[in-house]
Fold this protein.
Amino acid sequence: MKEKDFNAWSDTRKKGKLNFTLLSGLLAWGLPMFIVMTFIVNEAFDESGLITSHVVINGVVWTIGGLLFGTTTWFFTERKYHKEIAKRKET
């Protein structure tokens, strides 16, 4: 882990897992995916207008996906961070 990444993660982890998961997972990944997949790829409109069920289903799916993405990213970055701490203690 590079020094810059190590320091950045040290600062990020001080804010907590929930903050990281909500900001990085839900807002930075889940929300853009929801917008793209709902309104661009799956076309949530038909001749009568907005398909509410489409929007609701995609909202649930991408909210869960964003939270899983944030949690998974936190887990793997924490693992890398702790390996780096152990490595630095050895030297």
About this structure: The chain has a mean pLDDT of 94.
